[in-house]
Amino acid sequence: QLQLVESGGGLVQPGGSLRLSCAASKFTKNYGYIGWFRQVPGRDREGVSCISRSDDKRYYGDSVKGRFTISTDNTKNTVYLEMDSLNSDDTGVYFCAVPSNLIGCEFVRHMATDEYYYGLESWGKGALVIVSS
Fold first, then answer.
1. More confident residue, 95 or 119
2. What is the pLDDT of residue 23?
């Protein structure tokens, strides 16, 4: 089973930047997509970003578009989330996730629904990001 371990979370001031990393235990030939979602207590899960490995196409949630960048380093089995211009609404626990090939990166738009949450094949334990002055 694919195992994902996030790192890089922490406290950052509004307007600042942070980079999250996600190390995957292995990349299987059937693993076509990888991305991030976040969770804040009291709020719906929110899809953040996703990348398709076959064509390198990238997807972003509306609230992070233009500020966050997803990238991968396949030699290191790692996916990154570069977060810029952070604000308090970005506070939350960020999870690295691999969706099934059936739902692919659609989970970014529909992460609040259980159908897509349970369509994830694997996710990590999360990295806490706090944006505060």
1. 95
2. 92
